[in-house]
Amino acid sequence: MLAPKKQKFRKMFRGRSALKGKAYRGSTMSFGEFGLKALSAGEITARQIEAARRSITHYCKRGGKIWIRVFPHKPLTEKGAETPMGSGKGAVDRFVDTVKPGKIIFEMDGVTEEVAREALRRAAHKLPMKCKFVSKISV
């Protein structure tokens, strides 16, 4: 699973304002011919990215090339079950990336459009936001 190798600070504020607005960075196709674009904002966990990646590679029978355009840099903490209030912030539980509408999450190349469309449709079911299939021609 994806996680940062090193961080300057172990814990971070939640910062939900990062989900406001549209994505301008990462909103154009850079590597592949086909892509999966986010239509709504949300936080995508490392587990969700991995599940989507696996469904793409499984459907394509390990053919073609895949680029993952998101990386979970942000640590989210969680306190243990039945922990009383106080006693500080919880331990780091998972890493997420904030995704704004318009951000390209995955890109693909080396497969036909039908295969890419179905593979990315299956990957979209694993993600917590609405997504749509895009191609270099349509963007």
- The sequence of SSEs as H and E is EEHEEEEHE
Q: Count of helices? A: 2
CATH class of the domain at 42-79 and 91-139: Alpha Beta
Distance between the termini: 30 Å
> Per DSSP, what share of the residues sits in E-state strands of 2 or more residues?
25-35%
What does this protein look like?
This protein has 139 residues and is α+β, with helices and mostly antiparallel strands. It has a domain at 42-79 and 91-139: Aldehyde Oxidoreductase, domain 3. Helices cover 19% and strands 27% of the residues. It has two helices and seven strands. The protein has helices spanning 46-59, 113-124; strands spanning 34-38, 42-45, 65-68, 74-78, 91-99, 104-109, 131-135. The strands form two sheets. A four-stranded antiparallel β-sheet has the order 3-6-1-7, covered by helices on one side. It has a three-stranded antiparallel β-sheet with strand order 2-5-4. The two termini are 30 Å apart.
Show the helix and strand layout.
Blueprint: E1 34-38, E2 42-45, H1 46-59, E3 65-68, E4 74-78, E5 91-99, E6 104-109, H2 113-124, E7 131-135
